[in-house]
Amino acid sequence: MKGAQAVARCLKEQGVDTVFGYPGGMILPLYDAFYGDAKIHEILVTHEQNAAHAADGYARASGKVGVCIATSGPGATNLVTGLATAFMDSIPVVAITGQVDTSLLGRDAFQETDILDVTMAVTKHNFKVKGAEQLVPSVRQAFEIAKKGRPGPVLVDVPRDLFNADVGYEAEPPKSKPHTKPDADFMICVAEAAEEIARAKRPIVIVGGGVISAGASCEVIAFIEKNHLPVVHTLMGLGAIPSSHPQSLGFTGMHGEKAANHAIGASDLVIAIGSRFGDRLTGNVKNYMHGRKFIHIDIDPAEIDKNVENALGLAGPMKEILAFLMCYEAARPRAEWWKKIEAWRAQYGYDYQQDRLTVPWALHRVACSTKGKSYAYATDVGQHQMWAALHLAIEEPRTWLTSGGLGTMGYGLPAAMGAQLSYGKARRVIHIAGDGGIKMTGSEFYTIARLGLPIISLIVNNKSLGMIRQLQKVMYKSRYIACELDYPMDYVMYAKSFGIAAEAVSTQDEFAEAFERALADKSHPRVIVLNVWRSFVEPMIKGGARIDDFVEFK
């Protein structure tokens, strides 16, 4: 069969039912192979960056590999931000890019770009297919690499003439997973970790996005319950255990909840499960490490001791490691430690009794209105993202989509689209964005409207790049520059131009009524624009300070 037909067959072999992309001359043979194929749903986006974000959102929501396709040159380079976003957050994505014919490589042909060199730093692996016999193996290996171990994006670059070449194809037999027994040294480390946990007086667990990638939420819950351990989560770890779990203290880090950060600051042992100890989690690393030991459980050996020096590092499959730890006797309840924690909870609980519309109040109302129902949340990047992490209630894995590592503005809307296509009618996506990020990828409302996806978008219109403004207040003595969006933009008319029902709200009652109308309209996209005053995300830790030393806004 032709190479393009073989690639399409490989995609179906890998369980792919949806791909996101934008056509161009060098990728057209693959599009032609999709023609009339009901098994592959090809989604035409408005920009290649959005294809990568949508594939990322699809992957986060489904646990499958997301797929995006683009042509050579600008099509391929437009994928880079999306691939970097997936790379930083360990999301399995396969990108297939068209390339100029092999006879033209290196001749500066029209739309020729060496996309392998461009993407090498932001992909887990990439392939330049140089012969027809390499095409099928390269695509299969791309999926295997994207899923194996620590997930990540993989790019396959295919010259157009190889799409048109005759290639051999044989169905791949299913592979059995090899089972390897841990060595004696590893089991000694597990025993030492169990001893440290039993000995600690003020232990705390940090759960990160790795728990969700590993599908290990149930195992983590069993582990913390058996050992009476308080838990905090990273931005990427939201949903790994229910927000309502009695042992959960909430979100930790630069904008983390005060109770969670105080618990980290007072702990004598930190057990990190699937977290890479990024700088937004730790703040000043020396201060973060002072006075406590660390046990780090992660699939990626390269993460052990990379950012934080550990007493013990356990690298490997998370479920297996937790199963080994569960074989040891349960740690004692530590009543005094929990007494301290409950005091922080009582002292720093958020007061939602307000007389005007604020973003925290609105998101708390969203959490109350959707409690116990099938919803997921996708955010852009900025103040609204931190408010969402603090004030929404994320109860299940794979229902929280956000750009954590790269902090990509514009991520939220296309990611919400990819997630909604993954969920189908089983779950509805609520998308939260700021008036800065929505200008970057808001054109994807076109695709959402065209497909009739029932996404609810909340746009925070505070006429500013809110997080930039906040940093300028804290770090630059309120010298505000390049952050004010004072030229009025009518986001309601913008949404309506795509055929999407939209309304603006300025009071609590208006928001409550508008949101209930959006929830009731289960078959169509809706947009609600929140006209709110400029404010600051609290809590916020001071730069270079301890994790429990907070900025005081006046």
How does the SSE layout of this entry go?
Layout (H helix, E strand, L loop, with lengths): L2 H11 L4 E4 L6 H7 L6 E4 L3 H15 L3 E5 L3 H4 L2 H9 L4 E7 L15 H5 L5 E4 L3 H16 L5 E7 H4 L20 H16 L3 E5 L1 H5 L3 H10 L4 E3 L14 E4 L6 H9 L2 E5 L5 H4 L2 H5 L3 E6 L13 E4 L2 H8 L9 H14 L10 H12 L4 E5 L3 H9 L8 E2 L10 H12 L4 E7 L3 H4 L3 H7 L4 E6 L4 H10 L15 H6 L4 E5 L2 H13 L5 E6 L23
Parallel strand pairs: 1-2, 1-3, 3-4, 4-6, 5-6, 7-8, 7-10, 8-9, 10-11, 11-12, 13-14, 13-15, 15-16, 16-18, 17-18
List the total number of helices.
24
Low-confidence stretches: none
**Cα distance, first to last residue?**
69 Å
Which word captures the global form?
A: globular
Count the E strands. 18
Cα radius of gyration in angstroms: 24 Å
Mean pLDDT: 96
* Largest beta sheet: strand ordering: 2-1-3-4-6-5
Q: Which band does the percent of strand residues land in?
A: 15-25%
Helix content: 25-40%
Structural class: alpha/beta
The major pleated sheet works out as: 6 strands, parallel
